[in-house]
């Protein structure tokens, strides 16, 4: 439980280990509202300015009688910014004593806007702005608001077309995990391999689907777009990938809330087994607890990118 700046020490050291939701005299809710800009997909943050305190902060307000936490958070955000939002993840609540020595708790959610009404300045909020994350962190008046923003950024989903993926070597195939795992054979060849900073263009046959994929360079975070091809077009382009191909069987293994894609390679790469996991956010990637049968994390090792395996073969260990 975090303390907001200005929280006053008291004889009973509230909140301590207390049940703050049950004991709070003042209950409030708000949001850390983020969106992607229209350029490179960078995150932006919604800030409000309160003239009474001359501060920049996150929108929040007290619960009305009989109102739920989530309902109050969405209402306060719309009243103070004009934005109608949807809730994403809840952040750590903030508990403190207000200037009148009342016990107060505030619950925050990461939010994203679904529609924007007109912002109407008032005596409570006279300015509303979208700013880049770094600018927002500099402008926020209260340190704990900055902590909430940093937590929200870690949980924000990547922009459309961007994948967050980690990769591991698998020293020994986990046979017991493969018994009930769905499997699919994949063939892919490269029309353009690119370099370490250049995109790749590949053809892929995955089950009954034939695809053209463009994928950016990178490690954990990469842009990927797929285009469906008809069989005739795929067959016409496939000879152009000669000498730059891989074949593998992909097994899908459930692990907690994640799915591990276990690739067992064939042909010139026979004996190589690699596992990949895609994540919704960087925070989810950091929090992932891999099973014991996963070996070294090679996410940033370019030798294990499929395009390099297709051209150079298995890396020397």
Largest sheet: 8 strands, mixed
- Structural class computed from helices and strand pairing: alpha+beta
What percent of the residues sit in helical stretches (DSSP H or I)? 10-25%
- Spans of at least 5 consecutive residues with low confidence: 1-16
Strand content: 35-45%
What is the 3D shape?
elongated
What is the total tally of β strands? 16
Oligomeric grouping of the chains? single chain
What count of helical segments does DSSP give?
A: 8
N- to C-terminal separation? Answer: 46 Å
Describe this protein's structure:
With 317 residues, the protein is an alpha+beta fold. Helix content is 19%, strand content 39%. The protein has eight helices and 16 strands. α3 (133-139) packs antiparallel against α4. The two termini are 46 Å apart.
What's the layout of helices and strands?
Elements: H1 20-23, E1 26-36, E2 43-50, E3 55-57, E4 60-62, H2 69-81, E5 83-90, E6 94-97, E7 103-116, E8 127-132, H3 133-139, H4 143-155, E9 162-169, H5 175-178, E10 183-192, E11 200-206, E12 209-215, E13 221-228, H6 231-237, E14 245-255, E15 258-265, E16 273-279, H7 282-287, H8 306-312
Parallel strand pairs: 1-7
Antiparallel strand pairs: 1-2, 1-4, 2-3, 2-8, 5-7, 6-7, 9-13, 9-16, 10-11, 10-14, 11-12, 12-13, 14-15, 15-16
Helix pairs in contact: 3-4
């Amino acid at each position: 439980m975090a303390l907001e700046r200005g929280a006053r020490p008291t004889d009973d050291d509230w909140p301590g280990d207390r049940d703050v939701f049950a004991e709070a005299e003042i209950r409030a809710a708000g949001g850390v509202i983020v969106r992607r800009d229209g350029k490179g997909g960078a995150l932006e943050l919604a800030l409000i300015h309160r003239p009474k305190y001359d501060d920049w902060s996150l929108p929040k307000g007290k619960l009305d009688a009989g109102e739920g936490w989530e309902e109050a958070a969405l209402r306060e955000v719309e009243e103070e910014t004009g934005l109608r939002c949807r809730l994403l993840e809840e952040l750590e609540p903030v508990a403190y004593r207000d200037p009148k020595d009342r016990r107060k708790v505030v619950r925050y959610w990461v939010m994203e806007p679904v529609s924007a009404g007109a912002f109407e300045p008032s005596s409570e909020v006279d300015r509303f702005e979208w700013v880049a994350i770094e600018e927002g962190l500099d402008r926020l008046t209260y340190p704990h608001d900055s902590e909430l923003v940093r937590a929200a950024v870690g949980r924000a989903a990547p922009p459309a077309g961007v994948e967050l993926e980690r990769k591991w070597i698998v020293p020994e195939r986990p046979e017991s995990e493969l018994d009930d795992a769905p499997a699919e054979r994949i063939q892919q060849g490269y029309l353009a391999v690119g370099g370490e900073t250049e995109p790749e263009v590949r053809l892929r046959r995955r089950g009954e689907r034939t695809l053209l994929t463009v994928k950016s360079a990178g490690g954990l975070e990469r842009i990927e777009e797929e285009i469906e091809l008809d069989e005739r077009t795929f067959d016409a382009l496939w000879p152009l990938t000669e000498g730059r191909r891989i074949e593998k069987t992909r097994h899908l293994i459930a692990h907690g809330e994640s799915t591990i894609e276990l690739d067992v390679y064939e042909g010139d790469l026979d004996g190589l087994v690699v596992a990949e996991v895609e994540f919704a956010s960087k925070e989810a990637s950091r929090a992932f607890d891999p099973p014991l049968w996963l070996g070294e994390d090679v996410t940033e090792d370019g030798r294990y990118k499929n395009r390099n395996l297709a051209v150079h073969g298995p890396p020397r260990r």
